[in-house]
Write a structure and sequence with these properties.
Helix content: 25-40%
CATH architecture of the largest domain: 2-Layer Sandwich
Largest sheet: 9 strands, mixed
Shape: globular
Number of helices: 21
Strand content: 25-35%
Number of strands: 29
Number of domains: 4
Oligomer: single chain
Distance between the termini: 20 Å
Length: about 600
C-alpha cells in the first residue's frame, strides 16, 4: 500500500487519471483556481446536486429558482459586498507575488483562525515569526496588508455600460427577487427558496485543488421566517447525534468537542437558534447518506471576528482531509439584514403583511401636506417631498415639533414649514402590520463536498494477492450505478446477453457502463477505482444450467459475488442501491461465488 504520498496528492493523481477533475485550460498553461470536471467528476457532482435538491428543496417543500450569475452594481452596494467582501492581501517585495496573509499565518504558526484577527495583529504575527514568501523566500515582515475585494468586476452592455459583478454567492439572486417569490408563496411565512449554481470569487491564492477556487458551485437555501411566530419541526431531528465545536471551546486551552443531540444542543443554548439546530440535524443525516465519514466530520461555530457582515451567528460543517479541516457548508442566521438593505436601496417592497388575530386600535403619526404650497415651491419634486414627509412621520414623529421640517430628496435637503406638513397623531384601526422576514441560510459548497467524498471514500486493500485501490462511494452519488461485463469477450452468446442487460438496466433508470476489454479482474479493478458500487457478469455457468438463467452481482467494497436469477436482477439491484436491502441479505439468500472469481 502506498503511504509515502499525502492524501491530497493521492487524490489529485486519481482524480486526473480517472476523469474526476483536473486543471482547466491546460493547453494554454492553465489559470490557477479553475478546474474542469471530467466524465466521472461531472456525474458525481450532478448526483450530489440532485441529492441535495431532493432533501432541501423537494422534501422541505421549497421553491427553486435560477438567477443570473452577473448582477448590476447597486445589488452589491445594498448587500454590503462592495465594502465588506475582502480578504487580507500581502505582496512580496522581491517577486511581486500576492498571498493571503491569514493563510500564511495559519500554515506556519499554531494560529488556526487568523481570518478572524485584525490586520494589525496579522502583520505582527508575520513579523514575529519571520514569515517569508512561499514563491521566492523573500521576507514579508513589515509589508503592509491590504483589504482586497474578491468580486470579479465586469461591464454590462457596450459604450458607457453599466458596471456589474459576477455574483460571489447565489444568495443575492434569491434576495433581490423576494418581492416576486413571496407572491408564489401567497405572502405566507415560513417558506424557503433554493438555488444551485455557479459563484465567483477572485481568490488571492487558490489552493488545495478544488477546495479553494475562483469559480465554484453552491447549493443554497434561504429560509424566510417570522421570528416571533415561526418555529421549525425540531422534533423530527431532536435525536440526531452531532459533534459540535462551539466558540467557547475553541477559545479554551483545553477546549473539546461537544458530543450531543440536536435537541439537547438547542435546549442547552449551545446552538442558540432552533432553526439553525433544525438544519444542522438535516445536514448531519444528509452528509451521512451521501457518504461523508462521520468520524472526520464536525460542526464548528464561527468566532465573533470571522462571521460575515450579515451573520448574527454561523456554524460551519467541516470535514477533515489530509490532516486539515475544511469548510463544506455554512449555516448562518442572517436576520433581516439582506431584505432590509434591498428594501432601503430599491423601489420595491421586501416585507410581508402579518395579519393580526383581531384588529387593533393604534395611534399613528400622519401628515397631509398642503400640495397647493408644495407644488409651486418644489415643482416636479413635490410628490417626492410628500413621500419623504410621510416616511419621516412614521420613523421620527419628534422631527415635526420644530417650526420647520427638513427632508432629503434626490440628495438635496428640502425644508418645509411644519404647518404646511399638517402633522398630527390619530387613532386608526388596523388589521395587521408589515414585517421584514428573518433569513436562515444553509449554504453548501458542492465542489468541496465532492472533494470530501473522494477523499473519505478512497481505500486500499488486497484482493487475490494484489493491492487494490477503490472508492467507497455511496450508491446515492456514485457516477455509475453498475458495470456489466461478459466474462470473456469472444463468445457471442455472452456478449449479446450482456448487451441486452445493459439496455434493460438503462431502461430501468440505472447508469450503466459496459466493458469487455481485458481480463475480468482488470475490469473489476477499473470500476473499483472509479467507485462503481456493483458489477454484473454474464458467464457460461449462468446460462447453461438446468434452472433459470443467472448472473453474478459483485459488491465493490468487499469484492463478494452472489449468483442471482436474471429475472430478479433489476429488483435486487434497485433494493441494494437504494439501501432498502443490505448486500448481506443477498449473500444469505443466493449462492455466494467462491473467492478468486476476480482473477
Amino acid at each position: 500500500m502506498s503511504e509515502e504520498r499525502t492524501e491530497g496528492e493521492r487524490l489529485a493523481e486519481l482524480a486526473k487519471r480517472r476523469g474526476y477533475f483536473f486543471g482547466a485550460s491546460g493547453a494554454y498553461g492553465g489559470a490557477a483556481g479553475f478546474y474542469t470536471f471530467g466524465p466521472q467528476g461531472a456525474a458525481l457532482k450532478s448526483n450530489v446536486e440532485d441529492a441535495w435538491r431532493d432533501r432541501f428543496t423537494v422534501q422541505e417543500g421549497n421553491f427553486e429558482i435560477e438567477a443570473p450569475t452577473i448582477m448590476p452594481e447597486p445589488v452589491f452596494e445594498a448587500s454590503g459586498h462592495l465594502d465588506g467582501f475582502d480578504d487580507m492581501l500581502v505582496e512580496c517585495p522581491e517577486c511581486g507575488e500576492s498571498h493571503r496573509a491569514d493563510h500564511l499565518v495559519e500554515d506556519n504558526t499554531d494560529v488556526e483562525d487568523a481570518e478572524s484577527l485584525p490586520i494589525a495583529e496579522v502583520e505582527e504575527l508575520i513579523a514575529d515569526n519571520d514569515l517569508r514568501c512561499p514563491n521566492c523566500g523573500g521576507a514579508l515582515a513589515g509589508e503592509e496588508i491590504e483589504d482586497f475585494n474578491l468580486m470579479f468586476e465586469t461591464n454590462i452592455g457596450p459604450g458607457s455600460s453599466t458596471p456589474g459583478y459576477l455574483r460571489p454567492e447565489t444568495a443575492q439572486g434569491i434576495f433581490v427577487e423576494f418581492p416576486r417569490i413571496k407572491e408564489y408563496a401567497r405572502n405566507s411565512l415560513p417558506f424557503g427558496a433554493t438555488q444551485i449554481g455557479r459563484a465567483y470569487r477572485n481568490e488571492i491564492s487558490p489552493r488545495k485543488s478544488i477546495v479553494r477556487t475562483r469559480e465554484f458551485t453552491q447549493a443554497e437555501l434561504e429560509q424566510f421566517v417570522d421570528p416571533e411566530r415561526d418555529e421549525p419541526d425540531l422534533d423530527s431531528v431532536e435525536d440526531v447525534e452531532v459533534t459540535l465545536y462551539p466558540a467557547t471551546e475553541q477559545g479554551s486551552e483545553d477546549g473539546e468537542y461537544v458530543e450531543t443531540t440536536v435537541g439537547e444542543a438547542v435546549d442547552e443554548s449551545i446552538v442558540g437558534d432552533a432553526w439553525i439546530g433544525y438544519f444542522l440535524g438535516i445536514a448531519q443525516e444528509w452528509y451521512e447518506r451521501v457518504g461523508v465519514d462521520m468520524d472526520r466530520f464536525r460542526f464548528r461555530q464561527h468566532l465573533a471576528g470571522e462571521r460575515a457582515h450579515y451573520a448574527a451567528d454561523c456554524w460551519d460543517a467541516e470535514s477533515e482531509v489530509d490532516g486539515d479541516w475544511i469548510e463544506i457548508a455554512g449555516f448562518a442566521y442572517r436576520g433581516d439584514y439582506d431584505l432590509s438593505k434591498h428594501g432601503e436601496h430599491s423601489d420595491d417592497d421586501f416585507t410581508i403583511f402579518r395579519q393580526f388575530d383581531e384588529p387593533k386600535t393604534v395611534e399613528r403619526a400622519v401628515v397631509d401636506p398642503d400640495m397647493s404650497v408644495l407644488g409651486p415651491e418644489f415643482g416636479g419634486a413635490a410628490a417626492d417631498v410628500k413621500s419623504a414627509l410621510e416616511e419621516l412621520a412614521e420613523r421620527d414623529p419628534a422631527a415635526f415639533e420644530s417650526e420647520t421640517v427638513a427632508v432629503t430628496v434626490g440628495g438635496e435637503t428640502k425644508t418645509v414649514d411644519a404647518d404646511v406638513a399638517n402633522f398630527r397623531v390619530e387613532e386608526q384601526t388596523v388589521s395587521g402590520e408589515h414585517i421584514t422576514p428573518h433569513v436562515i441560510e444553509p449554504s453548501f459548497g458542492v465542489d468541496r463536498t465532492v472533494y470530501t467524498l473522494l477523499a473519505h471514500g478512497y481505500n486500499e486493500d488486497e484482493v487475490d494477492g494484489e493491492t487494490r485501490s477503490f472508492l467507497s462511494l455511496s450508491p446515492t452519488v456514485a457516477p455509475t450505478d453498475v458495470g456489466v461485463f461478459p466474462l470473456v469477450s469472444n463468445v457471442e452468446e455472452l456478449t449479446a446477453r450482456a448487451e441486452a442487460l445493459v439496455d434493460d438496466l438503462r431502461e430501468s433508470g440505472f447508469s450503466v457502463v459496459y466493458d469487455d476489454s481485458g481480463s475480468i479482474g482488470r475490469r473489476y479493478r477499473r470500476q473499483d477505482e472509479v467507485g462503481t458500487p456493483f458489477c454484473v457478469t454474464v458467464d457460461r455457468d449462468g446460462l447453461e444450467g438446468d434452472g433459470p438463467d443467472t448472473v453474478t452481482i459483485r459488491e465493490r467494497d468487499t469484492a463478494r459475488q452472489v449468483r442471482v436469477p436474471i429475472d430478479a436482477l433489476v429488483e435486487e439491484l434497485r433494493a441494494v442501491s437504494d439501501g432498502e436491502r443490505p448486500f448481506d441479505d443477498l449473500v444469505a439468500e443466493y449462492d455466494l461465488v467462491a473467492p478468486g472469481a476476480d482473477a
